[in-house]
Amino acid sequence: MKILVTGANGQLGNCLRNCSERGSKDNYIFTDVAELDITNAEAVKRMVKDNDIELIINCAAYTNVDKAEDDAEFAETLNSDAVRNLAEAIKDNDGTLIHISTDYVFGKEPYNVPCREDQKGTPTGVYGMTKLHGEQAIAASGVKSLIFRTAWLYSEYGKNFVKTMLSLTSTKPTLKVVFDQTGTPTYAQDLADTIFDIIENRRYKDNEGIYHYSNEGVCSWYDFTKMIAEIAGNDTCDIQPCHSDEFPSKVTRPSYSVLDKTKIKETFGIKVPYWTDSLKTCNIIITGGAGFIGSHVVRLFVNKYPDYHIINVDKLTYAGNLANLADIENKPNYTFIKADICDFDRMLELIRQHNIDGIIHLAAESHVDRSIKDPFTFAKTNVMGTLSLLQAAKVHWESLPEKYEGKKFYHISTDEVYGALELTNPEGIESPFTTTASSKEHHHAYGSEFFLETTKYNPHSPYSASKASSDHFVRAYHDTYGMPTIVTNCSNNYGPYQFPEKLIPLFINNIRHRKPLPVYGKGENVRDWLYVVDHARAIDLIFHKGNVAETYNIGGFNEWKNIDIIKVVIRTVDRLLGNPEGHSDELITYVTDRAGHDLRYAIDSRKLQKELGWEPSLQFEEGIEKTVRWYLDNQAWMDNITSGEYERYYDDMYKNR
User: 463 an active-site residue?
Assistant: First the structure.
């Protein structure tokens, strides 16, 4: 089904974009007035017909109430005539129109009584009158339609009341705000979620009509402003109540703007959130968010939770690449801060400044070979950096009235802290769970033991020793101070945006350039592999639903010998480059094994699967196919990494901001 969304750059339109990210976004066509002139009836008809549109969601409108009084003709054109064009066009295509209207179609009376859908419209200004005319145009056209009237619409997008009040209450010594205009704020994302749910379940087809939607509860503008300032911690501004007569306005605004929502709740079975819920945003620091796994976690959280503020803290060492996040760097709920987690004063400043509710800690030195050459750097970043974050969070959270309530410190670690497992049966024995790989040898594990959450730590490299130490500090902060902590230990990740020192991207790039493929020893070391997007999904689930003080193992249910996975990569790259499969086998070069190279890692993820319902979404071969295609399709990204050009991205994009 193709859906046309007009006014897509406004508050509600942007929220619908977020909904499309978690649904069938390819079926949405988002337009603004600049791209499609909805006042041009022929242009609208062509758009609807040429794209086979079945549903229009009309968010476009002239919404400035005061300016409409001086621009009545254009307000009528956009709020009424254009609506008629949309209705006629979608009717000709036997489709449905969802139209967003307003409580301004009602006037001042009756006071203190919620307005119902069947109540007569009595607008007192041009804006309300033109919006009522738009509703009437829909009715006259006979198109299949749903009209949603809403009140006090706001979101995190654009210049809206919340952003204005945040700015004013943080910069003004005193602020007068009206107390005698009462209604209910409506969070745009809540309305978008409701519309999206109705669309996804096709319930709009049998439930035409007008519906009222706003959040639950009633407040004044004064109440609303006080709540914003309180949550933001803007306590230096003296917010004073005043009468609406003290504020000049060209329109007599409704003094009681409350909508009766009985019809929409009963018809669609929806639960309407309270108006204060959306103001209580969640502020999360994700450390190492410019790295391989971190960038996938940041992207997921920024896109999935538009009402969260995601702060990416990264020092941008060799593996940190902001180009990994170019697609979300201008999102309004995303902030990047270049900082070193070892700098305790800076971490405390950031946690206080952004009133942080949660920390997802991924920043770490991570390559075993580098740890063998430079163990001091690994100890500093992985141990002291983690300790710096823990102590900064402790100092701030313990200073709050609520202390640790609603807070969480989530530490991401590795399966390497457990040490190594022996290959007790090289021919393989049945695993305690079903793997997703296809060949016979991959349907068997390589031994009888697996890493459990209770497995004793036994690190063998400077890298794994530094991660084990950081894990112990995280748990100690829970046991000693009561900090809500969670630790997860994950198996080998693969996928897009991985730094090319790692096996899979290194081999893809070397095959492309016909360079040797270095294999340690005989390539018989066994690892469990997990597609990085599935790891990000697990982190999301555990952060929101995982139990405090617990450890969760995250694995891909896939054990492979290094040489076998190398040959899968070779076959896949050769095929996609148009070469005979196995053409690049000749590039394999066996090199001296590294010191202390653990023979086998095997994660048992059944606790996570049983308690929280997580499991990998991709079969291994499918994940490898997606990964190889990504690197071949994004060769410029790889070239920037290998040439060092990526290191200039921060200066180009952020230094002068």
Answer: yes
